[in-house]
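User: Please predict the structure of the protein below. I'd like the answer in structure-token form so I can feed it into my own downstream comparison script.

Assistant: Understood. Taking the following sequence of 237 residues as input:
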Amino acid sequence: MTTKKSKNKNFFALSTLLVTFALLWTLNNIFVEGNYQLLWLTIPIVILLSGVESMYYHRFLAHKSWDCPKWLEIIFITISTGFHFLPAMFWAGGHRKHHRFNDGEGDIQGPTVSVIQNIKLVLGDVIVSPRYMLDMIDNTLLRIQLSFYWLLLITFGVIWSLIFGFDSYMYIILIQKITTFSFLYISHIGGARNNYWASTIMLNSEYLHKRHHEQSSNPYFGGFDIWYYTIVKHFPK
């Protein structure tokens, strides 16, 4: 347990350092250097990265609600590692724990825990019991991601920066974390409920939270579920 806690604290420290640097770099880049063009990336970034998280981390890994082909899984895990979604096994395991306690006592996210705890969760300061991850241990891609997470992230970041620029990479890292943290609150205010406005505006059926908790094994999340209609439905379980 001490070793696990130590590794977790090291991960949390590196994650906090990365996101803090991304915040400071982005604030300077936009408001001091005047590179406002980065703001145009916000909507496509939020929609596309939320889609990867929804399809891969949430529906496929946490709930096994559809069969993601291996070639698509490689694409998803490359994007999620490169933009610091956190190791997939812990994300999916933590989400399963969330479903078990369903916004009640013992939950690890949402209004039942403090704002600080939600921020720490988004940055990776959480230890998830192996009981929530047993079926994922044999997934080679997830084991590689877990073992070489920071090396893979740095490699991806270098390649992205050489092609698209370091400014955009820092901005995407920051927006990804802000979006994840915001979702934890918007979708949990007042308990598990359906927020149709957020779902429509963000093109993200993840905000139909109550419906999902009632039908967690259903790959269709309700409403105009763009990711279900464009990708998920074509690879049924």
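That's the full token string. The chain has a mean pLDDT of 88.
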